[in-house]
Amino acid sequence: MATYIVLLGPPGAGKGTQAKILAQTTNLAHISSGDLFRENITNQTELGKLAKSYMDKGELVPDDITIAMVRERITRSDCKNGAIVDGFPRTPIQADAFEKILDGLGAAVTAVPYVTAAEAVLIERTGGRWSCRAQGHIYHKKFNPPKQEGICDIDGSELYQRDDDKEETVAKRIRVYLERTMPLVEYYRKRGKLIEINGVQPVEQVTKELLAALK
Ligand code: AP5
User: Fold this and answer.
1) Neighbours of 2 (CB within 10 A)
2) CATH 2.60.40.10 applies to domain 3-117+193-214
3) 15 lines ligand 1 (CB under 6 A)
4) Which is the most buried residue in 53, 116, 184, 189, by most CB within 10 A?
5) SS3 per residue for 73-142
6) Local confidence pLDDT in tens for the 215 residues of the chain
7) 55 lines ligand 1 (CB under 6 A)
8) Does 13 sit in the ligand 1 pocket, CB within 6 Å?
9) Which atom of ligand 1 is nearest to the CA of 13?
């Protein structure tokens, strides 16, 4: 059966960083709802324009739009063995819909690592984040600087600061996370899928704990 790992946690906890490493280590696809929206914004699609209007305010994109986007993404061939899913689901409605989508594929959520970090850490991390324009590789000016300022080590593309990483937008995103996404902690705990991971450790240590917990 295909493997679907859902990474849960607040903005800046390190989900994207860990998802990219886990996808490489496990040979599973990486599905990031945030990256999918950002690709659409870059390509100036209708979905991108709509998503941007919510993202810039730190709000969630409506469930039906997000679910339809992930439903399409999961049918692509790189997901045949499963995926590391980061940023989705983010509401109980999305979680129920995801269960149905996977059920239709004869699969289910395998495990849900919940990466935790205190608010001050989230603000420091998002405030210093640099993302790569081409493929979303993630850096931090202090914790994970690129070799050459402003340039991605991996694909040489430009690094930029996300519009939604302004301090006031991050504060809003954290509030939205607490109200709308936190209920998923209990949702997956009740289903016996939740694995708590301390995100306030060096990246390599977080990866080590994730891999050990997922074995
Ligand atoms: P999305 O892109 O999903 O953002 P997020 O969930 O808020 O998470 P982030 O990407 O900010 O953080 P992360 O946990 O991935 O941390 P990262 O690894 O980058 O969503 C953006 C927006 O899109 C939402 O606000 C919403 O509008 C919309 N959206 C997306 N999905 C949606 C959905 N399902 N439904 C509705 N709307 C949706 O790390 C952060 C920084 O810390 C980096 O600089 C990194 O280098 C550094 N770092 C990482 N780990 C460590 C470590 N262990 N030690 C030190 N530094 C570290």
Assistant:
1) 17
2) no
3) yes
4) 184
5) HHCCHHHCCEEEEECCCCCHHHHHHHHHHHHHCCCCCCEEEEEECCHHHHHHHHHCEEEECCCCCEEECC
6) 899 999 999 999 999 999 999 999 999 999 999 999 999 999 999 999 999 999 999 999 999 999 999 999 999 999 999 999 999 999 999 999 999 999 999 999 999 999 999 999 999 999 999 999 998 999 999 999 999 999 999 999 999 999 999 999 999 999 999 999 999 999 999 999 999 999 999 999 999 999 999 98
7) yes
8) yes
9) 14
d(CA 5, CA 112): 6
Whether the pTM exceeds 0.90: the reply is yes
> Active site includes 133?
no
CA–centroid distance, 138 to ligand 1, in Å, is 10
Ligand 1 centroid to residue 192 C-alpha, Å: 25
Cα(185)–Cα(112) distance, integer angstroms: 9
Helix (H, G, I), strand (E, B) or coil at 31: strand
Q: Residue 198 class from Cβ within 10 Å (0-12 exposed, 13-18 middle, 19+ buried)? A: exposed
Amino acid letter at 24? Q
98 CB within 6 A, ligand 1: no
Any ligand 1 atom below 6 A from CB of 174:
no
What single letter denotes the amino acid at residue 82? Answer: G
| Residue 30 identity | H
